[in-house]
Description:
heterodimer, A: alpha/beta, Rossmann fold, 2 domains, six-stranded mixed beta sheet, three-stranded antiparallel beta sheet, 9 helices, 9 strands, B: mainly alpha, MetI-like fold
Amino acid sequence: MAGYIEIAKVRKCFRGSGRQPQSTEVLRDFSLSVTKGEFVTFFGPNACGKSTLLSIVAGLVPHDSGTVSIGGQEPRAARIGFVFQQNQTSLLPWRTNLDNVALPLELAHVSRTDRRKKASEFLQQLDVRIPSDGYPYQLSGGQQQLLCIARALIADPEVLLMDEPFNQLDFQTRVAMNEKLQDIWMKTGKTTLFVSHDLDEALLLADRAIMLSKRPAAIARTIENRLPRPRSRALLQDEGFFRLKKEALGTFEQVIAA
Amino acid sequence: MKKEVVVGPLLVLVLWFLLNALHVVKPVFLPSIDRVFSELYRLFATGQILGDLGGTVMRWIIGLAVGVCIGVPLGMLMGYSDRVYGSLEIVVDFFRSVPAMTLFPLFLVFFGLGDKAKISIAAWGSLLYVMVSAMYGVKHSRHTRLMVAKTLRATPLQTFTKFVFPDALPEIAGGMRVAISLSLVLVVASEMMMGTSLGLGKRILDASLVYNMSQMYATIIVAGLVGYISNKLFVLLESKLIHWAGR
Protein backbone atom coordinates (compact mmCIF):
# COMPACT_ATOMS: atom_id res chain seq x y z
CA MET A 1 0.00 0.00 0.00
CA ALA A 2 1.32 3.41 -0.94
CA GLY A 3 1.64 5.75 2.02
CA TYR A 4 -0.07 9.07 2.49
CA ILE A 5 3.27 10.81 2.55
CA GLU A 6 5.75 9.22 0.19
CA ILE A 7 9.38 10.22 0.34
CA ALA A 8 11.37 8.34 -2.27
CA LYS A 9 15.13 8.47 -2.84
CA VAL A 10 15.41 12.10 -1.87
CA ARG A 11 18.79 13.69 -2.17
CA LYS A 12 19.70 17.12 -0.88
CA CYS A 13 23.03 18.82 -1.10
CA PHE A 14 23.82 22.30 0.19
CA ARG A 15 26.32 23.94 -2.08
CA GLY A 16 29.18 25.49 -0.20
CA SER A 17 29.91 29.18 -0.25
CA GLY A 18 32.19 31.72 1.38
CA ARG A 19 33.70 30.38 4.56
CA GLN A 20 32.43 26.87 3.91
CA PRO A 21 33.48 26.13 0.36
CA GLN A 22 32.82 22.37 0.35
CA SER A 23 29.24 21.32 -0.26
CA THR A 24 27.43 19.15 2.28
CA GLU A 25 25.18 16.29 1.45
CA VAL A 26 22.43 16.18 4.06
CA LEU A 27 20.13 13.58 2.53
CA ARG A 28 21.12 10.69 0.27
CA ASP A 29 18.49 8.36 -1.18
CA PHE A 30 16.22 8.96 1.75
CA SER A 31 12.96 7.05 1.56
CA LEU A 32 10.04 6.89 3.96
CA SER A 33 6.39 6.12 3.74
CA VAL A 34 3.92 7.48 6.27
CA THR A 35 0.33 6.32 6.54
CA LYS A 36 -2.56 8.69 7.03
CA GLY A 37 -3.12 9.73 10.65
CA GLU A 38 0.24 8.43 11.78
CA PHE A 39 2.44 10.26 14.30
CA VAL A 40 6.06 9.93 13.23
CA THR A 41 8.94 11.43 15.16
CA PHE A 42 12.53 11.92 14.07
CA PHE A 43 15.46 11.72 16.41
CA GLY A 44 19.12 11.90 15.49
CA PRO A 45 22.49 13.53 16.04
CA ASN A 46 22.87 17.30 15.75
CA ALA A 47 22.82 18.73 12.24
CA CYS A 48 22.02 15.34 10.72
CA GLY A 49 19.48 16.82 8.32
CA LYS A 50 16.22 16.20 10.17
CA SER A 51 15.07 19.82 9.91
CA THR A 52 16.00 19.91 6.24
CA LEU A 53 13.88 16.83 5.68
CA LEU A 54 10.91 18.60 7.25
CA SER A 55 11.48 21.72 5.15
CA ILE A 56 11.53 19.59 2.00
CA VAL A 57 8.26 17.91 2.93
CA ALA A 58 6.83 21.39 3.60
CA GLY A 59 7.93 22.53 0.16
CA LEU A 60 10.05 25.29 1.69
CA VAL A 61 13.34 23.96 0.39
CA PRO A 62 13.80 22.31 -3.01
CA HIS A 63 15.48 18.91 -3.11
CA ASP A 64 17.97 17.82 -5.73
CA SER A 65 16.51 14.51 -6.79
CA GLY A 66 13.93 11.95 -5.76
CA THR A 67 10.24 12.53 -5.16
CA VAL A 68 8.07 13.71 -2.29
CA SER A 69 4.30 13.55 -2.36
CA ILE A 70 1.60 14.30 0.17
CA GLY A 71 -1.74 12.66 -0.58
CA GLY A 72 -0.60 12.25 -4.17
CA GLN A 73 0.31 15.91 -4.67
CA GLU A 74 3.50 17.92 -4.83
CA PRO A 75 4.48 19.30 -1.41
CA ARG A 76 4.03 22.87 -2.63
CA ALA A 77 0.44 22.13 -3.63
CA ALA A 78 -0.42 20.50 -0.31
CA ARG A 79 -1.89 22.37 2.63
CA ILE A 80 0.49 22.07 5.51
CA GLY A 81 0.59 23.20 9.08
CA PHE A 82 4.09 24.01 10.28
CA VAL A 83 5.13 24.71 13.85
CA PHE A 84 8.55 26.24 14.30
CA GLN A 85 10.89 26.13 17.23
CA GLN A 86 10.73 29.92 17.67
CA ASN A 87 7.37 30.47 19.34
CA GLN A 88 7.89 34.18 19.87
CA THR A 89 9.00 35.20 16.39
CA SER A 90 6.63 32.98 14.48
CA LEU A 91 3.57 34.75 15.87
CA LEU A 92 2.55 38.19 14.64
CA PRO A 93 2.66 40.49 17.68
CA TRP A 94 0.60 43.22 15.99
CA ARG A 95 -2.39 40.88 15.89
CA THR A 96 -4.51 39.69 18.77
CA ASN A 97 -4.22 36.06 19.79
CA LEU A 98 -7.47 35.22 18.04
CA ASP A 99 -6.41 36.97 14.84
CA ASN A 100 -3.17 35.03 14.90
CA VAL A 101 -5.07 31.76 14.97
CA ALA A 102 -7.41 33.05 12.25
CA LEU A 103 -4.54 34.11 9.98
CA PRO A 104 -4.62 31.08 7.64
CA LEU A 105 -8.34 31.64 7.10
CA GLU A 106 -7.70 35.29 6.39
CA LEU A 107 -5.12 34.40 3.75
CA ALA A 108 -7.80 32.18 2.22
CA HIS A 109 -10.17 35.18 2.11
CA VAL A 110 -12.63 34.00 4.76
CA SER A 111 -14.62 37.00 6.03
CA ARG A 112 -13.62 38.61 9.32
CA THR A 113 -16.66 37.54 11.35
CA ASP A 114 -16.58 33.99 10.01
CA ARG A 115 -12.90 33.46 10.60
CA ARG A 116 -12.98 34.92 14.10
CA LYS A 117 -15.95 32.77 14.98
CA LYS A 118 -14.29 29.69 13.58
CA ALA A 119 -11.02 30.47 15.35
CA SER A 120 -12.66 30.87 18.71
CA GLU A 121 -14.70 27.68 18.25
CA PHE A 122 -11.55 25.87 17.23
CA LEU A 123 -9.67 27.01 20.32
CA GLN A 124 -12.57 25.81 22.41
CA GLN A 125 -12.61 22.47 20.63
CA LEU A 126 -8.90 22.02 21.30
CA ASP A 127 -9.47 23.18 24.86
CA VAL A 128 -6.88 25.91 24.49
CA ARG A 129 -7.78 28.68 26.93
CA ILE A 130 -6.10 31.90 25.88
CA PRO A 131 -7.52 35.43 26.10
CA SER A 132 -8.76 36.19 22.57
CA ASP A 133 -8.18 39.92 22.64
CA GLY A 134 -4.78 39.82 24.29
CA TYR A 135 -1.53 39.90 22.35
CA PRO A 136 1.02 37.10 21.93
CA TYR A 137 3.75 38.96 23.82
CA GLN A 138 1.58 38.80 26.93
CA LEU A 139 1.56 35.00 26.86
CA SER A 140 3.94 32.45 28.30
CA GLY A 141 6.14 30.44 25.93
CA GLY A 142 3.90 27.39 26.26
CA GLN A 143 0.76 29.37 25.48
CA GLN A 144 2.48 30.95 22.49
CA GLN A 145 3.33 27.54 21.13
CA LEU A 146 -0.25 26.34 21.66
CA LEU A 147 -1.35 29.32 19.61
CA CYS A 148 1.08 28.30 16.87
CA ILE A 149 -0.26 24.75 16.92
CA ALA A 150 -3.84 25.97 16.69
CA ARG A 151 -2.87 28.28 13.82
CA ALA A 152 -1.16 25.39 12.05
CA LEU A 153 -4.26 23.21 12.35
CA ILE A 154 -7.14 25.59 11.79
CA ALA A 155 -7.17 25.44 7.99
CA ASP A 156 -7.41 21.64 8.15
CA PRO A 157 -3.99 20.89 6.66
CA GLU A 158 -3.13 17.57 5.09
CA VAL A 159 -0.13 17.21 7.32
CA LEU A 160 1.21 18.75 10.52
CA LEU A 161 4.95 19.34 10.59
CA MET A 162 6.69 20.26 13.82
CA ASP A 163 10.34 21.24 14.02
CA GLU A 164 11.56 20.90 17.61
CA PRO A 165 8.56 22.92 18.76
CA PHE A 166 9.14 22.64 22.49
CA ASN A 167 12.88 23.34 22.57
CA GLN A 168 12.61 26.80 24.00
CA LEU A 169 10.30 25.80 26.81
CA ASP A 170 11.23 24.88 30.36
CA PHE A 171 10.97 21.27 31.47
CA GLN A 172 7.68 21.59 33.30
CA THR A 173 5.97 23.34 30.39
CA ARG A 174 7.43 20.86 27.98
CA VAL A 175 5.92 17.93 29.87
CA ALA A 176 2.54 19.64 29.89
CA MET A 177 2.84 20.43 26.19
CA ASN A 178 3.62 16.81 25.32
CA GLU A 179 0.37 15.76 26.92
CA LYS A 180 -1.56 18.63 25.39
CA LEU A 181 -0.21 17.89 21.93
CA GLN A 182 -1.29 14.25 22.19
CA ASP A 183 -4.69 15.41 23.27
CA ILE A 184 -4.95 17.71 20.23
CA TRP A 185 -3.60 15.06 17.93
CA MET A 186 -6.13 12.49 19.15
CA LYS A 187 -8.91 15.02 18.52
CA THR A 188 -7.79 16.02 15.04
CA GLY A 189 -6.13 12.82 13.85
CA LYS A 190 -3.62 14.70 11.70
CA THR A 191 -0.75 12.94 10.04
CA THR A 192 2.17 14.41 11.96
CA LEU A 193 5.90 14.57 11.42
CA PHE A 194 7.72 15.76 14.51
CA VAL A 195 11.43 16.48 14.84
CA SER A 196 12.78 16.31 18.36
CA HIS A 197 16.12 16.28 20.05
CA ASP A 198 14.68 14.89 23.24
CA LEU A 199 14.60 11.12 23.12
CA ASP A 200 11.88 10.69 25.76
CA GLU A 201 9.68 13.10 23.88
CA ALA A 202 10.34 11.44 20.53
CA LEU A 203 9.44 8.01 21.90
CA LEU A 204 6.53 9.11 24.04
CA LEU A 205 4.67 10.91 21.25
CA ALA A 206 5.38 8.53 18.40
CA ASP A 207 3.52 5.77 16.69
CA ARG A 208 6.81 5.36 14.95
CA ALA A 209 10.08 6.93 16.03
CA ILE A 210 12.68 7.16 13.30
CA MET A 211 16.26 7.09 14.52
CA LEU A 212 18.49 8.86 12.03
CA SER A 213 22.15 8.42 11.33
CA LYS A 214 24.75 11.14 11.02
CA ARG A 215 24.80 13.27 7.88
CA PRO A 216 23.75 12.35 5.23
CA ALA A 217 20.73 11.22 7.21
CA ALA A 218 19.62 7.65 6.75
CA ILE A 219 17.17 5.62 8.80
CA ALA A 220 19.27 3.82 11.39
CA ARG A 221 16.30 2.18 13.05
CA THR A 222 12.56 2.46 13.32
CA ILE A 223 10.98 1.98 16.72
CA GLU A 224 7.28 1.32 16.88
CA ASN A 225 5.47 2.42 19.98
CA ARG A 226 2.17 0.60 20.42
CA LEU A 227 1.64 1.55 24.05
CA PRO A 228 -1.89 2.79 24.69
CA ARG A 229 -2.74 6.49 24.48
CA PRO A 230 -2.99 8.96 25.98
CA ARG A 231 0.51 8.50 27.27
CA SER A 232 1.46 10.55 30.27
CA ARG A 233 4.90 11.24 31.63
CA ALA A 234 4.32 8.41 34.10
CA LEU A 235 4.85 6.04 31.21
CA LEU A 236 8.56 6.85 31.33
CA GLN A 237 8.75 4.54 34.38
CA ASP A 238 6.93 1.80 32.55
CA GLU A 239 8.65 -1.47 31.69
CA GLY A 240 7.45 -1.40 28.09
CA PHE A 241 8.65 2.15 27.52
CA PHE A 242 11.95 1.35 29.12
CA ARG A 243 12.53 -1.43 26.61
CA LEU A 244 11.88 1.00 23.71
CA LYS A 245 14.24 3.52 25.19
CA LYS A 246 16.97 0.99 25.70
CA GLU A 247 16.66 -0.05 22.09
CA ALA A 248 16.76 3.58 20.98
CA LEU A 249 19.78 4.43 23.11
CA GLY A 250 21.64 1.44 21.77
CA THR A 251 21.02 2.59 18.24
CA PHE A 252 21.94 6.15 19.06
CA GLU A 253 25.29 5.08 20.50
CA GLN A 254 26.07 3.07 17.38
CA VAL A 255 25.13 6.06 15.25
CA ILE A 256 27.37 8.41 17.19
CA ALA A 257 30.26 5.98 17.14
CA ALA A 258 29.98 5.40 13.40
CA MET B 1 3.92 61.71 35.91
CA LYS B 2 6.57 61.82 38.60
CA LYS B 3 7.08 64.89 40.73
CA GLU B 4 10.79 65.27 39.95
CA VAL B 5 10.10 66.27 36.33
CA VAL B 6 9.59 69.88 37.45
CA VAL B 7 13.14 70.04 38.84
CA GLY B 8 14.84 70.55 35.46
CA PRO B 9 12.62 73.37 34.21
CA LEU B 10 12.81 75.04 37.64
CA LEU B 11 16.62 74.90 37.58
CA VAL B 12 16.65 76.59 34.18
CA LEU B 13 14.33 79.33 35.41
CA VAL B 14 16.36 79.87 38.59
CA LEU B 15 19.59 80.04 36.58
CA TRP B 16 17.98 82.48 34.15
CA PHE B 17 16.71 84.60 37.03
CA LEU B 18 20.13 84.69 38.71
CA LEU B 19 22.04 85.47 35.51
CA ASN B 20 19.68 88.33 34.90
CA ALA B 21 19.27 89.63 38.44
CA LEU B 22 22.99 89.53 39.23
CA HIS B 23 23.81 91.12 35.87
CA VAL B 24 26.14 88.29 34.97
CA VAL B 25 24.81 88.69 31.44
CA LYS B 26 23.77 92.10 30.23
CA PRO B 27 19.96 92.48 30.26
CA VAL B 28 20.22 93.57 26.63
CA PHE B 29 21.29 90.02 25.75
CA LEU B 30 19.25 88.18 28.34
CA PRO B 31 16.08 89.99 29.39
CA SER B 32 14.28 89.09 32.58
CA ILE B 33 11.89 86.16 32.70
CA ASP B 34 8.81 88.29 33.09
CA ARG B 35 9.68 90.47 30.10
CA VAL B 36 10.13 87.47 27.84
CA PHE B 37 6.92 85.83 29.01
CA SER B 38 4.88 89.00 28.75
CA GLU B 39 6.23 89.37 25.19
CA LEU B 40 5.24 85.77 24.56
CA TYR B 41 1.75 86.55 25.84
CA ARG B 42 1.57 89.70 23.72
CA LEU B 43 2.63 87.84 20.57
CA PHE B 44 -0.27 85.42 20.98
CA ALA B 45 -2.80 87.91 22.35
CA THR B 46 -2.33 90.23 19.38
CA GLY B 47 -2.16 87.27 17.05
CA GLN B 48 1.10 88.58 15.60
CA ILE B 49 2.91 85.28 15.82
CA LEU B 50 0.08 83.10 14.51
CA GLY B 51 0.99 83.76 10.88
CA ASP B 52 4.61 82.81 11.53
CA LEU B 53 3.60 79.74 13.48
CA GLY B 54 1.20 78.71 10.73
CA GLY B 55 3.77 79.28 8.00
CA THR B 56 6.45 77.24 9.71
CA VAL B 57 4.13 74.39 10.68
CA MET B 58 2.64 74.26 7.18
CA ARG B 59 6.06 73.99 5.47
CA TRP B 60 7.24 71.50 8.04
CA ILE B 61 4.21 69.17 7.88
CA ILE B 62 4.02 69.21 4.08
CA GLY B 63 7.76 68.63 3.78
CA LEU B 64 7.62 65.80 6.27
CA ALA B 65 4.64 64.21 4.53
CA VAL B 66 6.31 64.39 1.12
CA GLY B 67 9.51 62.92 2.57
CA VAL B 68 7.65 60.04 4.24
CA CYS B 69 5.51 59.31 1.18
CA ILE B 70 8.58 59.03 -1.05
CA GLY B 71 11.06 57.68 1.50
CA VAL B 72 9.07 54.79 2.94
CA PRO B 73 8.24 53.05 -0.37
CA LEU B 74 11.74 53.66 -1.72
CA GLY B 75 13.35 52.36 1.46
CA MET B 76 11.16 49.28 1.48
CA LEU B 77 12.09 48.58 -2.11
CA MET B 78 15.75 48.80 -1.12
CA GLY B 79 15.09 46.47 1.78
CA TYR B 80 13.34 43.98 -0.46
CA SER B 81 15.79 43.88 -3.30
CA ASP B 82 19.52 43.42 -2.78
CA ARG B 83 19.96 44.66 -6.34
CA VAL B 84 18.23 47.99 -5.73
CA TYR B 85 20.08 48.28 -2.42
CA GLY B 86 23.41 47.53 -4.04
CA SER B 87 22.82 50.07 -6.78
CA LEU B 88 21.80 52.89 -4.49
CA GLU B 89 23.89 52.17 -1.39
CA ILE B 90 26.75 54.58 -2.12
CA VAL B 91 24.51 57.38 -3.33
CA VAL B 92 22.25 57.15 -0.30
CA ASP B 93 25.13 56.95 2.16
CA PHE B 94 26.83 59.88 0.48
CA PHE B 95 23.80 62.15 0.54
CA ARG B 96 23.09 61.14 4.11
CA SER B 97 26.57 62.37 4.99
CA VAL B 98 26.08 65.73 3.27
CA PRO B 99 24.72 68.21 5.86
CA ALA B 100 21.35 69.25 4.43
CA MET B 101 22.07 72.92 5.09
CA THR B 102 24.92 72.94 2.60
CA LEU B 103 22.30 72.28 -0.05
CA PHE B 104 20.30 75.43 0.73
CA PRO B 105 21.80 77.42 -2.18
CA LEU B 106 21.08 74.52 -4.52
CA PHE B 107 17.44 74.32 -3.46
CA LEU B 108 17.20 78.07 -3.79
CA VAL B 109 18.41 77.87 -7.37
CA PHE B 110 16.06 75.02 -8.22
CA PHE B 111 12.93 76.07 -6.41
CA GLY B 112 13.19 79.82 -5.98
CA LEU B 113 12.57 82.05 -2.98
CA GLY B 114 9.08 80.81 -2.13
CA ASP B 115 7.74 78.00 0.03
CA LYS B 116 8.69 75.33 -2.47
CA ALA B 117 12.38 75.48 -1.64
CA LYS B 118 11.77 75.30 2.13
CA ILE B 119 9.29 72.49 1.83
CA SER B 120 11.65 70.59 -0.45
CA ILE B 121 14.52 70.92 1.97
CA ALA B 122 12.38 69.56 4.81
CA ALA B 123 11.21 66.76 2.53
CA TRP B 124 14.79 65.98 1.54
CA GLY B 125 16.02 65.74 5.11
CA SER B 126 13.16 63.55 6.29
CA LEU B 127 13.21 61.41 3.16
CA LEU B 128 16.76 60.24 3.78
CA TYR B 129 16.07 59.28 7.37
CA VAL B 130 12.77 57.57 6.75
CA MET B 131 14.12 55.74 3.73
CA VAL B 132 17.00 54.22 5.63
CA SER B 133 14.79 53.16 8.52
CA ALA B 134 12.23 51.63 6.16
CA MET B 135 15.01 49.75 4.42
CA TYR B 136 16.32 48.28 7.66
CA GLY B 137 12.77 47.63 8.81
CA VAL B 138 12.24 45.36 5.83
CA LYS B 139 15.69 43.81 6.01
CA HIS B 140 15.13 43.00 9.68
CA SER B 141 11.73 41.40 9.25
CA ARG B 142 11.88 38.16 11.13
CA HIS B 143 12.99 35.17 9.14
CA THR B 144 10.64 32.85 11.00
CA ARG B 145 7.65 35.02 10.12
CA LEU B 146 8.58 34.90 6.46
CA MET B 147 8.78 31.12 6.74
CA VAL B 148 5.34 31.11 8.36
CA ALA B 149 4.06 33.11 5.37
CA LYS B 150 5.58 30.51 3.08
CA THR B 151 4.10 27.53 4.92
CA LEU B 152 0.68 29.20 4.85
CA ARG B 153 1.14 29.71 1.11
CA ALA B 154 0.69 33.48 1.36
CA THR B 155 0.86 35.33 -1.96
CA PRO B 156 3.66 37.89 -2.42
CA LEU B 157 1.16 40.70 -1.84
CA GLN B 158 -0.15 39.04 1.33
CA THR B 159 3.39 38.46 2.51
CA PHE B 160 4.05 42.16 2.12
CA THR B 161 0.84 43.55 3.65
CA LYS B 162 0.39 41.06 6.46
CA PHE B 163 3.96 40.16 7.37
CA VAL B 164 6.74 42.41 6.09
CA PHE B 165 5.10 45.83 6.36
CA PRO B 166 3.80 45.53 9.93
CA ASP B 167 7.11 43.97 10.95
CA ALA B 168 8.92 47.04 9.57
CA LEU B 169 6.66 49.58 11.29
CA PRO B 170 8.58 49.95 14.57
CA GLU B 171 11.74 50.82 12.69
CA ILE B 172 9.94 53.16 10.30
CA ALA B 173 8.42 54.95 13.29
CA GLY B 174 11.89 55.31 14.79
CA GLY B 175 13.09 56.99 11.61
CA MET B 176 10.03 59.23 11.56
CA ARG B 177 10.72 60.41 15.08
CA VAL B 178 14.14 61.66 14.01
CA ALA B 179 12.72 63.07 10.77
CA ILE B 180 10.11 65.10 12.67
CA SER B 181 12.78 66.95 14.66
CA LEU B 182 15.20 67.25 11.78
CA SER B 183 12.71 68.68 9.31
CA LEU B 184 11.58 71.30 11.81
CA VAL B 185 15.20 72.37 12.25
CA LEU B 186 15.61 72.60 8.48
CA VAL B 187 12.45 74.62 7.96
CA VAL B 188 13.33 77.16 10.66
CA ALA B 189 16.90 77.42 9.39
CA SER B 190 15.75 77.86 5.81
CA GLU B 191 13.43 80.65 6.91
CA MET B 192 16.41 82.42 8.43
CA MET B 193 18.77 81.89 5.54
CA MET B 194 16.50 82.06 2.52
CA GLY B 195 14.14 84.70 3.82
CA THR B 196 10.36 84.61 3.85
CA SER B 197 7.47 86.85 4.83
CA LEU B 198 6.03 84.65 7.56
CA GLY B 199 7.89 82.07 9.64
CA LEU B 200 9.29 81.53 13.13
CA GLY B 201 12.84 81.49 11.78
CA LYS B 202 12.28 84.82 10.06
CA ARG B 203 10.87 86.40 13.22
CA ILE B 204 13.75 85.15 15.35
CA LEU B 205 16.29 86.54 12.91
CA ASP B 206 14.50 89.88 12.52
CA ALA B 207 14.08 90.31 16.27
CA SER B 208 17.76 89.62 16.90
CA LEU B 209 18.83 92.07 14.20
CA VAL B 210 17.05 94.94 15.97
CA TYR B 211 18.07 93.73 19.44
CA ASN B 212 14.48 92.94 20.36
CA MET B 213 15.72 90.16 22.60
CA SER B 214 12.48 89.54 24.47
CA GLN B 215 10.76 88.79 21.21
CA MET B 216 13.62 86.65 20.00
CA TYR B 217 13.57 84.51 23.16
CA ALA B 218 9.77 84.34 23.12
CA THR B 219 9.81 83.06 19.53
CA ILE B 220 12.57 80.56 20.33
CA ILE B 221 10.36 79.25 23.12
CA VAL B 222 7.49 78.86 20.64
CA ALA B 223 9.69 76.99 18.17
CA GLY B 224 10.94 74.77 20.98
CA LEU B 225 7.43 74.03 22.13
CA VAL B 226 6.38 73.05 18.61
CA GLY B 227 9.21 70.54 18.45
CA TYR B 228 8.70 69.28 21.97
CA ILE B 229 4.95 68.83 21.75
CA SER B 230 5.06 67.19 18.33
CA ASN B 231 7.66 64.74 19.56
CA LYS B 232 5.63 63.86 22.66
CA LEU B 233 2.48 63.44 20.60
CA PHE B 234 4.25 61.19 18.14
CA VAL B 235 5.72 59.00 20.88
CA LEU B 236 2.27 58.71 22.44
CA LEU B 237 0.73 57.77 19.11
CA GLU B 238 3.56 55.34 18.44
CA SER B 239 3.13 53.50 21.72
CA LYS B 240 -0.60 53.17 21.05
CA LEU B 241 -0.42 52.10 17.41
CA ILE B 242 2.80 50.10 17.51
CA HIS B 243 2.17 48.51 20.88
CA TRP B 244 4.30 45.46 20.13
CA ALA B 245 7.56 47.33 19.52
CA GLY B 246 10.44 45.97 21.55
CA ARG B 247 8.47 43.04 22.95
